[in-house]
Specification:
The chain is an alpha+beta fold and 494 residues long. It is built from 15 helices and 22 strands. The protein has a six-stranded antiparallel β-sheet, with helices on one face. A five-stranded mixed β-sheet has the order 6-5-11-7-9. A hairpin with a 2-residue loop joins strand 1 and strand 2.
Length: 494
């Protein structure tokens, strides 16, 4: 699936352009807003991209490596057994690049034949013409020879071609229609896994090739089945080119029609028996509970949503999921030991690795507005950081926000995942973290740091999570500063 063209010149989508030069989409959007990088219907020209990001950055993939590393670490992605695509996929992509190279060489030979013919004609006219003709043909021949002897393409463009070809060999670019969402399929990933890792919410069920909920139509490109599936397509679906995203990988660049999740209302309630993978201490009264779902029954949820957890003794409590939907098997929860909380007491006293914890959910509409073009500010107090963490990781996976700012308040100054937040700051140029010390009911002095750093908040969407007193302080402070109410989304987390 080639990118679109502008007067015959290849155009790159922002997703592919960002990958090529090793920066985030947010960094490109900032250049576009400043007028430094022109666009054509949301696409950019390679020559403009190379002008803004010279060859020193094009050849240096450190920025991309830092971004990929922090995403892998922060989202707790599975460790891939293979980084390379399947042999059949590599062979198909190599064959495609080989055919393209052959076409390019044939075109070059044709151009060479034409220019040789022109040079001979110029020489013929120079010999047979008079003085006036020689005065014209002589300089014209010199110009033509000079142009042909120039190094072309230049070093910048050569670097671009090499990197773009390698990217096409190792990954496949997928565009969803309608909506034009984009992501890359890497290694031996299925199309569904790659979409989820990119923060794109698609409809799916068993993830095992049985239910057919992840059925999609391939508009262009080629796929390859990765595993056996029992779902039976109708003759009409076969004729339309339908495949199961959970069972197929992308061989070439794809354009597909796939069922996307429109919002929280589109996700069914699920009951899953999870197992305790690990209980990690984050302090004397704070634990990070890692639960893992069965492979054939993963939790489909949106970042920011919550579930109800129940232990073997019948103790239950509602907790926001503190991890990214891009890893829907490995779920995290921030559990604080509180007086009278039977579930938390059981976690700290009796729960152990391998135990069953029943899960019921998801619920709630504290979710990211992915259609908004505005930058993001996240406000958290205490364990309100749990759903905020999920939103941040999802925003990173989607890579759509120009900048992300986290303000995390705590009454005792205990930011139990402080190092994680600082690692995000170190790894991503567009992420900023400010820890605050403030009681939930007395947050106004701390909140003043936000307007000091951002005098005009109208260009932001703000997501706030924490106790009711904290949310009341946030709403009053923002109202007093004339912040648009429809750009604030909040969730109570005690």
């Amino acid at each position: 699936m080639p990118d679109q063209s502008n007067n015959g010149a290849q155009l790159l989508s922002l997703t592919r352009a960002a990958r090529l030069v090793g920066v985030t989409r947010g960094a490109l959007q900032k250049k576009i807003k400043k007028g430094e990088l022109p666009t054509f219907e949301g696409m950019v020209r390679p020559e403009d991209l190379l002008r803004v990001y010279p060859d020193t950055q094009l050849d240096n993939s450190s920025e991309l490596e830092r971004f990929t590393h922090i995403k892998d670490e922060a989202f707790a992605h599975r460790v891939r057994e293979r980084l390379l695509p399947e042999p059949e996929v590599l062979a198909e992509r190599l064959s495609g690049l080989g055919k393209e190279l052959a076409r390019t060489r044939a075109q070059v030979e044709r151009y060479k034949t034409i220019t040789d013919w022109l040079y001979d004609k110029f020489s013929e006219y120079e010999r047979s013409g008079g003085q006036d003709m020689r005065l014209v043909m002589g300089p014209l021949k010199l110009w033509l020879r000079h142009e042909l002897e120039k190094q072309s393409p230049n070093d910048y463009l050569q670097s671009y071609v090499v990197k773009e070809s390698f990217l096409r060999l190792m990954t496949a670019h997928v565009r969803l229609v309608p909506g034009q969402r984009e992501f890359f399929v890497e290694g031996s990933d299925t199309i569904l896994d790659a979409a989820l890792r990119a923060g794109i919410s698609l409809r799916y069920g068993c993830s095992n090739g049985n239910c057919g909920l992840c059925k999609a139509r391939v508009v262009s490109g080629k796929t390859l089945p990765m595993r056996h599936s029992d779902y039976v397509f109708s003759d009409a679906e076969k004729a339309q080119g339908c495949v199961l995203l959970c069972s197929h990988t992308a061989v070439t660049d794809l354009e597909i029609e796939a069922p996307r999740i429109g919002g929280a209302q589109d996700i069914p309630m699920q009951q899953i028996a999870t197992r305790v993978k690990k209980i990690e201490s984050l302090g004397e009264d704070m634990a990070l509970l890692h639960l893992q779902t069965p492979r054939t029954k993963r939790l489909q949820f949106l970042a920011g949503q919550a579930v109800t957890l129940e232990t073997a003794n019948g103790a239950e409590a509602e907790y926001p999921v503190a991890s990214c939907p891009c890893d829907d098997r490995n779920l995290q929860f921030h559990v604080r030991r509180l007086p009278g909380n039977r579930f938390a007491d059981y976690v700290f006293r009796k729960l152990k690795n391998g135990d069953i914890v029943a899960l019921d959910g998801p619920k709630g509409e504290f979710t990211l507005n992915e259609e908004s073009p505005r930058s993001l500010i996240f406000l958290a107090h205490g364990t309100g950081f749990a759903p905020i963490k999920s939103l941040i990781e999802h925003a990173m996976a989607r890579d759509v926000a120009e900048t992300l700012h986290l303000y995390w308040a705590s009454g005792d100054g205990e930011h139990y995942l402080n190092n994680l937040c600082r690692s995000w700051t170190d790894a991503l140029d567009n992420f900023h973290y400010t820890p605050l010390v403030a009681d939930a009911a007395e947050s106004t002095p701390a909140l003043q740091q936000i307007t000091t750093a951002h005098p005009d908040l109208s260009g932001f969407d703000i997501y706030a999570a924490g106790p009711e007193d904290f949310l009341a302080s946030v709403k009053k402070y923002l109202r007093d500063n004339n912040f648009p109410e429809n750009q604030l989304v909040s969730s109570r987390v005690d």
